């Protein structure tokens, strides 16, 4: 199992959710507003427009799906602020996706 | 009452704007939660929508209203075109050129609100259809800029330039959907319709909320604008003299053209003044949100920063009294 963490411009959240859904992930968690600094300078904290807002979304998926998602998101990041990280998580309930079925 | 620069400045909301700039410059931790800023802006749109809708219902759609609405729509299409050609003289990234052109073709609701309260204080009347003009000027500019960016994109693909990272253009249908369903835009349209449906009675019922506390809400909103403007001022150093100059001179050029059109159409003093303000202002809400999707290659710090940190303060502080003098 892999954990895919994506930080992306808030305006692109819908697109990222669509990528995750289409890749066949069982679900995802969103942190609606995150701030920080990266290759596009400081991001976050402005109420008038969400153009400078970042948002974070993570999902637990198998390796194949993780690669599928990260490749699609990498394309978005060419033009938008963001980052994709894939890690090996210690999930306390590793078979939860199987249990659901 | 005199309409001098000083009397425009000696108004609590405007002074809160300067106070916001001051607080940010001395690095105070004063801030307004982003969710409240969003609420203040929705409140403002509801207030002008109800007021505009109700007076539109009272006066009906006059031929003067139709003429001014057509002129408003045409201007929001024409401004991006000549802005595009002026900007490309010095700016190399044509996506930035298209995005800035959209920003200046579109309008700033808060500038319009500040201008409306300026003439209200002087007792100069204006038509409810001016709020409709605000609505019709929002989207055409975005569409024009997306068309211009599309031309740039296809030209660069032909020339093998990869500046655009091969990003596929969004279909026009999707862009139009984004532009018309943008939350702030829709809020104004919805409030106008509700104002028109309920007429003067509805307006009166809403008055404690939409009129009674209006100045206080505007003060909070402009305080936030001051804080934001000051945060962006440092970035303006990277923007460069040409674009800052554009942000200061373009409102004057646009206002002068609008004055000429207003004269030809024989508009009243209040309507002509608000028409000038609409044409002279630049958008920092709806346009950046849509353009970020539609022209991803453009740098939002440029088009957003210019509209917010250069043109908005210029219009609020100098533009409003100046354009009023020009109308007189």
Radius of gyration of chain A over all CA atoms, rounded: 14 Å
The rough form of chain B would be described as globular
Largest sheet, strands/sense/barrel of chain B: none
Distance between the termini of chain B: 14 Å
Mean pLDDT of chain B: 86
Element-level helix/strand string of chain A: EHEEEEHEH
Biggest interface, CB < 8 A: A-B, 15 and 26 residues
- Element order, helices and strands of chain B? HHHHHHHHHHHHHHHH
Q: Give the beta-strand count of chain B.
A: 0
The proportion of residues forming helix of chain A, as a percent range, comes to 25-40%
Provide key terms for this protein.
heterodimer, A: 101 residues, alpha+beta, four-stranded antiparallel beta sheet, two-stranded antiparallel ribbon, 3 helices, 6 strands, B: 328 residues, mainly alpha, 16 helices, globular
Could you please describe the fold and organization of this structure?
The complex is a heterodimer of chains A (101) and B (328). Chain A has 101 residues and is an alpha+beta fold. Chain A is built from 3 helices and 6 strands, in the order βαββββαβα. Chain A has a 4-stranded antiparallel β-sheet with strand order 2-5-1-6, with helices on one face. In chain A, a hairpin with a 2-residue loop joins β3 (36-38) and β4 (41-43). In chain A, α1 runs antiparallel to α2 (63-77). The longest helix of chain A has 15 residues, at 63-77. The mean pLDDT of chain A is 85. The model of chain B has no long low-confidence stretch (mean pLDDT 86). Helices cover 80% and strands 0% of the residues of chain B.
């Amino acid at each position: 199992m892999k954990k895919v963490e994506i930080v992306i411009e808030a305006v692109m959240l819908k697109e990222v959710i669509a990528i995750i859904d289409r890749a066949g992930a069982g679900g995802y968690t969103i942190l609606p507003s995150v701030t920080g600094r990266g290759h596009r300078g400081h991001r976050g904290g402005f109420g008038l427009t969400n153009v400078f807002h970042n948002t974070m979304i993570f999902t637990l998926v198998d390796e194949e799906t993780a690669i599928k998602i990260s490749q699609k998101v990498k394309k978005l990041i060419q033009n938008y602020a963001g980052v994709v990280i894939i890690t090996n998580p210690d999930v306390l309930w590793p078979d939860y996706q199987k249990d659901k079925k | 009452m005199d309409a001098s620069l000083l009397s425009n400045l000696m108004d609590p909301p405007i002074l809160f704007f300067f106070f916001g700039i001051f607080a940010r410059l001395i690095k105070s931790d004063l801030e307004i939660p982003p969710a409240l800023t969003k609420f203040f802006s929705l409140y403002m749109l509801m207030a002008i929508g109800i007021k505009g809708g109700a007076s539109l219902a009272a006066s009906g759609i006059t031929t003067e209203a139709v003429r001014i609405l057509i002129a408003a729509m045409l201007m929001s299409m024409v401004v991006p075109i000549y802005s595009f050609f002026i900007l490309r003289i010095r700016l190399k990234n044509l996506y930035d050129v298209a995005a800035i052109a959209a920003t200046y073709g579109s309008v700033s609701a808060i500038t319009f609100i500040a201008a409306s309260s300026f003439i209200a204080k002087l007792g100069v009347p204006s038509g409810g259809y001016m709020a409709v003009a605000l609505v019709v000027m929002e989207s055409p500019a975005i569409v024009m800029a997306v068309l211009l960016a599309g031309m740039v994109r296809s030209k660069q693909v032909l020339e093998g330039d990869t500046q655009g990272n091969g990003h596929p253009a969004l279909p026009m249908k999707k862009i139009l959907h984004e532009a018309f369903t943008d939350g702030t835009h829709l809020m104004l349209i919805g409030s106008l319709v509700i104002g028109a449906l309920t007429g003067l009675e509805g307006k009166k019922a809403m008055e404690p909320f939409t009129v009674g506390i209006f100045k206080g809400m505007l003060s909070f909103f402009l305080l936030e604008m001051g804080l934001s403007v000051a945060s962006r001022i440092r970035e303006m150093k990277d923007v460069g003299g040409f674009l800052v100059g554009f942000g200061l001179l373009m409102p004057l050029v646009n206002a002068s053209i609008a004055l000429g059109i207003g004269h030809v159409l024989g508009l009243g003093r209040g309507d002509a003044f608000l028409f000038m303000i609409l044409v002279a202002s630049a958008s920092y809400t709806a346009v950046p949100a849509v353009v970020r999707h539609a022209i991803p290659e453009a740098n939002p710090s440029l088009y957003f920063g210019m509209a917010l940190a250069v043109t908005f303060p210029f219009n609020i502080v100098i533009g409003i009294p100046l354009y009023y003098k020009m109308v007189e």
